Amino acid sequence: MTNRHEQMKAQRRMQRRIQLVVEERRSARAAQTFDPERTVEIPPQALRAIGRVPVTAI
Asked: Which end of the chain, N or C, is more open, meaning fewer C-beta atoms within 10 Å of its C-beta?
């Protein structure tokens, strides 16, 4: 079993790793150019239901 100091060190290390990933994703997203004409394909399994109501036609 680890002592409190080691637990806090591990928690700080994990928080730092999470923060680095968040910053990396944020900068990668900011680097993308926003194209309002871009379309996104919706996978078929996403069209099965919205909430609890099955979707028959959109």
From this structure: N
* pTM recorded for the entire structure: 0.47
Q: Where are the alpha helices (DSSP H) in 1-58?
A: 4-31
Length of the chain: 58
Q: Where are the domains of the chain?
A: 1-35
- Which residue from 28, 30, 29, 26 is spatially nearest to 18, judged by alpha carbons? 26
Residues 10 and 37: their CA atoms lie apart, in Å, by 45
Note the pLDDT tens digit of each residue in 32-53: 766 667 777 766 665 565 566 6
The first and second tokens of residue 54, run together, are 């099955």
